[in-house]
Amino acid sequence: MCSALFLIGFLNINLLSLIIRTTMSICTNTIIIIIEIFSHFLKMFSLAIRLSANIMAGHTLVYIICSFIVNVMNYNIYSISMLVYYP
Questions:
Q1: pLDDT the model gives residue 1
Q2: 86 SS3 class
Q3: What is the pLDDT of residue 76?
Q4: Does 80 have pLDDT greater than 70?
Q5: Which of 1, 47, 59, 71 is the most exposed place for a label (fewest CB within 10 A)?
Q6: Average pLDDT of every residue of the chain
Q7: What is the 3-state secondary structure (H, E, C) of 18-56?
């Protein structure tokens, strides 16, 4: 999906004109174009990995907080009163 949108943007908006420099040689322009296109495709994959890692971290945090709340709610009132010192 993202790669299709990227290619549509390259074809319709002519994003290639932003990468090509008229002051550089054809060989240098070719190398720069290849590097730029490759970096855009890698950016999509790195953002997808970061998004999935953040989603997993958020779900893990919710699980930890919920399990802590359940453990506190299940803690027996009598055992709490045993911890308090009455002089």
A1: 62
A2: coil
A3: 59
A4: no
A5: 1
A6: 79
A7: HHCCCCCCHHHHHHHHHHHHHHHHHHHHHHHHHHHHHHH
